[in-house]
């Protein structure tokens, strides 16, 4: 298939997963609206239907809680084929529509800015309506997920990288006693070897039950949850999103002082995520140590506008080791597993964020190399959820919304790449 036919196929995936106002990540495995998936979807739609792009973000923010938290899943319509559904989360009365009780990486302001810049006339009204909601969401992070400028998560799902090795030590410290019986649905759709293990799942559910027991109270969860890990992805993503929100404040004639203060605080905080080897990785706040993992999130430093010769060297190693970088865990590390979700596979969305950061920071050759290899991966292996970084084998769900969006908005040669 040539790249124009692939553009066509990617647009068809977005249309097929469109449920009228919001887009499913993929039907079957993920039958609801997911937070950061929708922001990527909006950026994909913006390449051919700008109104639909704004609608995606507007629908996402229709689920925002009064405290500013934007949930990671919005359960618009019941679907018994998914676990854990609204009955497990128990968030009744917390938000305007049924939802989970945790958030997800705040990429939305960055994509809102890019969509706005594409067509400021079409964007003025929806952007003006979204602006205070984005500020409220970022304020929620700064208040309840902020450890001295490092953004932490209280559940592995909040960070969007469910079973990353960055969480291992915090997960091992949990004894999921009393979690009870439950039936997973994910392994009915995808081979279990590509998904988190039963040990992980018991702890995921136990953490949900525990936060529910705390009434989803922000202060109680932030203080008492046994899982608290500062995350390079969350920190770099919020840092970048704050800058973008400040640029939008200028465009809309809004005040940016609070946003600039957050940007300064997060820039200082991100430095603390650099471990003794010079790599940005997770920091287990309860135990007080770094995790020592080189993940694809480590390479988001440029996206947050922090440079690092050490990380550039790591990137060159990843290019040498993998035909289809960037692996979610360094090849050769004890944790590496080419097929298991966030412990090795390559994810198109993270590649795009890394590529945008590299280009911003003047590493043009690396940015172009990453884009070209990601394009080859998708052209040869389809629009999968994630891929084996060595062979390119597709893994997880197929016809995946955010992968198609990444093709349209970044990887496709239609965007001017080689
Ligand atoms: C998985 C991913 C998460 C994503 C969701 C829907 O849970 O780890 O990042 O948002 O699937 O695609």
From TrEMBL:
One Pfam family in the UniProt entry: MGH1-like_GH
GO molecular function, one term: Glc3Man9GlcNAc2 oligosaccharide glucosidase activity
Gene Ontology biological process: oligosaccharide metabolic process; protein N-linked glycosylation
Domain Mannosylglycerate hydrolase MGH1-like glycoside hydrolase: 30-403
Family statement: Belongs to the glycosyl hydrolase 63 family.
Statement: the UniProt record of this protein carries the keyword Acyltransferase: no
Keywords per UniProt: Glycosidase, Hydrolase
Protein name (database record): Trehalase domain protein
PANTHER family the UniProt entry points to: MANNOSYL-OLIGOSACCHARIDE GLUCOSIDASE
């Amino acid at each position: 298939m040539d790249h124009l036919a692939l553009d066509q196929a990617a647009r068809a995936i977005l249309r097929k997963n469109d449920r009228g106002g919001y887009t499913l990540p993929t039907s079957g495995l993920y039958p609801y609206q997911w937070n950061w998936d929708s922001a990527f979807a909006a950026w994909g739609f913006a390449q051919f239907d700008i109104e639909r792009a704004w609608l995606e973000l507007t629908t996402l923010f229709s689920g925002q809680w009064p405290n500013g938290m934007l949930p990671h899943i919005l359960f618009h319509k019941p679907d018994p084929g998914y676990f854990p559904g609204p009955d497990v989360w128990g968030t009744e009365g917390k938000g305007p529509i049924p939802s989970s009780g945790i958030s997800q990486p705040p990429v939305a302001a960055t994509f809102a800015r890019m969509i706005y810049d594409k067509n400021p006339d079409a964007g003025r009204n929806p952007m003006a309506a979204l602006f205070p909601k984005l500020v409220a969401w970022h304020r929620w992070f700064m208040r309840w997920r902020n450890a001295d400028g490092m953004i932490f998560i209280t559940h592995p799902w909040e960070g969007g990288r469910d079973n990353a090795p960055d969480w291992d030590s915090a997960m091992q410290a949990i004894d999921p006693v009393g979690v009870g019986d439950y039936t997973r649905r994910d392994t009915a759709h995808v081979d279990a070897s590509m998904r988190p293990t039963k040990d992980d799942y018991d702890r995921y559910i136990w953490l949900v039950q525990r936060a529910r027991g705390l009434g989803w109270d922000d202060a109680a969860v932030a203080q008492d949850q046994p899982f608290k890990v500062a995350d390079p992805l969350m920190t770099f993503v919020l840092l970048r999103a704050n800058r973008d929100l400040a640029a939008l404040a200028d465009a809309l004639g809004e005040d940016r002082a609070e946003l600039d203060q957050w940007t300064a605080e997060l820039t200082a905080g991100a430095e603390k995520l650099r471990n003794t080897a010079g790599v940005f990785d997770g920091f287990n706040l309860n135990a007080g140590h770094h995790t020592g993992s080189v993940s694809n999130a480590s390479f988001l430093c440029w996206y947050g506008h922090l440079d690092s010769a050490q990380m550039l060297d790591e990137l060159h190693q990843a290019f040498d080791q993998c035909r289809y970088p960037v692996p979610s865990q360094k090849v050769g590390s004890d944790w590496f597993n080419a097929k298991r979700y966030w412990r090795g596979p390559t994810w198109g969305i993270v590649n795009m964020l890394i590529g945008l950061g590299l280009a911003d920071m003047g590493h043009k050759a690396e940015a172009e190399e990453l884009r070209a290899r990601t394009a080859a991966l998708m052209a040869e292996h389809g629009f999968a959820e994630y891929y084996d970084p060595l062979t390119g084998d597709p893994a997880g769900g197929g016809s995946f919304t955010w992968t198609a969006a990444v093709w349209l908005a970044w990887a496709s040669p239609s965007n001017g790449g080689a």
